[in-house]
Amino acid sequence: MAFSEQSLFRMLRDLVEDELAHSGDRPDSAGWSTVTTLDGPEVRSDSLDLTTLATAVNERFRLHELRNEDFLLRYRTLGDWVGLVREALLEGTAGMAFRTSGTTGPAKLISHGWDALEAELRALERVLPTPRRVIALVPAHNIYGFLLTVALPERWGVPVVDGEAAWATVHADLQPGDLVVTIPERWRYLASVRGQWPEAVAGVSSTAHLDTTVYRRLLDSGIEAITEIYGATETGGAGYRQAPGEAFTLLPHWQRDEQGRLVPTSGATGEPMVPMDQLRWTGQRQFRPEERYDGAVSVGGTNVHPEAVGEALCEHPWVQGAQVAAQPSDRGVRLRAHISLANDAPDIQQARAVLRQWIDERFDPSRRPRALTFDQEAGDTGIPVSRRP
To answer: What is the pTM assigned to this prediction?
Structure first.
């Protein structure tokens, strides 16, 4: 599967930005280009960062299969890395790999062979309109962003508008035939700020449930259609729906077996998959997702395990125990935490201020509890408790 230098640059830029954000402050990649040096003032990666970045790129594009992964540490510009990846893809690798978010436990590396990716792209082509442009309001380093804003536009032969230019476009320069790709939280925002949409503009939403009210508001304001994709890093896209409230339909490259597992259809390869969610089947190919098996919740398009967040809160010496749960609202889902303070902790007012600052510095936005309550303020919350050892 071949990709243009521009597409490879987007994937590498977003992957590098995300990897650096996990180990420190998120860099501003808006001004990066193929001549940007990875250890220069714009990226500011040190020798340990470079090793981490090279590992991530090697894992993603499977350069080790051609025994040229060591070249990543010999070069220092994004353009050099684009060239290495493009050469590897042209020589032929077995596929690509994507990491899970790591918020529900250790991040897992999920490999997708080219035949499976090809089958999914053919399936998505059958359910999505061919656009004039793709407006990418998602990064290109996760599987959703890769499929919808890299691989499909390459097949369609249409341009992609991304980053800050995508936000400017969606507000002031949308044109008939554009396809907007983003996540439910951003669709909620767009539904609140756009009173109408140009003719024949369509959208795609994924990573979490698109609120039915938001879905209807977008359709009522003139967007032609929104295709909601159900899936995960492990499966890629598995189902879709194109109307609020209806059941999802399996994408053509999947079918279900007698155990309710997802099985690739003819033309795709892979093992049967147990879905991340409990699925209530309403037909042979129609289903409604219910609770996740692992108890995770989606916050800002990222799967988060509340119990793991509670355990992380207990690493602060003032926190003896923590109960964390999702707090849905008409503005989206955030986390709330009920905290049992240790005996040597200060009063609630001081503890709240210090803990808020500590949480903001330590936790990614999707894992930050926005509401904090304490034992002295409320009774039992009825949610699982994490205790400091």
So the answer is: 0.78
